Amino acid sequence: MKYSNDPFWVRLRWIIFILFWLLWVGMLVGAIIIIILAPKCEPRATREWWQKGPIYQVYPSSFKDSNGDGIGDLKGLESKLDYLDDLGVKAVWLNPIYESPNKDFGYDISNFTAIDKRYGTMADFEALVAKLRSRGIELLMDLVPNHTSDKHPWFEKSVKRERKYNDYYIWEDSAAADPSGQQLPPNNWAIIKKWPQIIGCLAVLSVFGKSAWEWHPERQQYYLHQFYKEQPDLNWRNPNVQEEFKEIMHFWLDKGIGGFRLDAVIHLVEAEDMIGKDEPPSRDPKVTDPNKYGYLEHTLTAHQPMTFTIMETWRKFVDNYAEKMGDGRQRVLLAEATGEVPDVMKYYGNGTIAHFPFNFQFIDGLKPPLTGDKVKDNISEWMESLPNDNLWPNW
Fold it and tell me: Where are the transmembrane segments (predicted)?
């Protein structure tokens, strides 16, 4: 105890005590400064409605019949909203309900702004959209920009060479006539045989291996149809056609829908200088029949540069529409794009084209024999091919 009152030790204890608290306070202040000044982690991005849950496809004619006529309809779909809600669905992708001769399950459209009466009325549609949205579910329309029905007024007017509509479609003269006098197509372009004859879009040339060109006796020219002859291809190099579809999009967006699934977009634009140009053989060892669609490499009729330019204008259109509405709801574009993964990735742009293209590769990659490594590789190929990390995959 002799040191307890010694002035030297008393001063030393006070010095140590004060230094301890100065050091402690200094550390506290330093920690606070580090917390304040250190670079912040980026906040977690807010997910949009289409990123928060599944998108549920509804083929209307077979989903739910409300009136006993044997055909599903809009009121039938409305009666099943509790079911969709229970599934956690965030959006319904509705296959075509437009007026149509129904040669291709509604994908041959004769009026893009009218409801086919077999499904109900426009009032039924508006009521469905309102009830879906009251549950936090968006509706996506299936829009077919590549072609129309041959019963569409545009085509009928184009056949007659009416001034505005003369080149709404791809018309070409015959390349020549055979010895019997029959007109021959401009080139070897082929059409796609579609479901239900064969499941899948890219299957064979046609039911009978026909050309993608159909002679029209009234106009005395061939018209291009990459699908059935009742589905003439639109001429997307015509500015009037481009404006028509913006008006169609605006019409349905004004009805309150959340966006569009865009059908068969890889075929939207054809090579400009097409006459006399045949598509080369694909040299795929698995396809030896010249009547198969895969026998040709579709360098002139698929994934053309102008397709992406046009789709960028659509993206700007729906983005501007959403901004103008100011309701915080994105309007989305989903692209049905088939092909090899590098080609499909082009439909993302850099976040400037589709919000996402369909991932058909995921389904194709799950064919037997199925292994864990195969699933992993399938997923990794898509994820590693994304143009940037901010883009949204789909499965």
Answer: 12-38
Inter-axis angle of helices 305-325 and 239-253, nearest 10? 30
What kind and span of H or E run contains 55?
Answer: strand 55-58
8 A C-beta contact, residue 111 and residue 98: yes
Peptide bond before 196: cis, by omega within 30 degrees of 0?
Answer: yes
DSSP for residue 204: -
Q: How far is CA 376 from CA 47, 355, 370, 372, 394, in A?
A: 25, 24, 11, 6, 15
| Listed range (1-5, 46-50, 126-130, 265-269) with the worst mean pLDDT | 1-5
**Rounded Cα–Cα distance for residues 204 and 245 (Å):** 29
User: Which amino acid type is present at position 364?
Assistant: D
- Say whether domain 52-150+233-385 belongs to CATH 3.20.20.80: yes
122: left (phi over 0), alpha (psi -120 to 50) or beta: alpha
pLDDT score, position 19? 84
Check whether 274 has a pLDDT greater than 80. no
Provide the 8-state DSSP code for 267.
G
Residues 6+ apart with CB under 8 A from 93: 55, 56, 57, 58, 140, 142, 261, 334
**137-181 confidence digits (pLDDT tens):** 999 999 999 999 999 999 999 999 999 999 999 999 987 776 776
Q: How far apart are CA 306 and CA 300, in angstroms?
A: 12
Helix (H, G, I), strand (E, B) or coil at 167: coil
Q: List residues with catalytic annotation.
A: 263, 336
3-state helix, strand, coil in the chain (%, to 5): 35, 15, 50
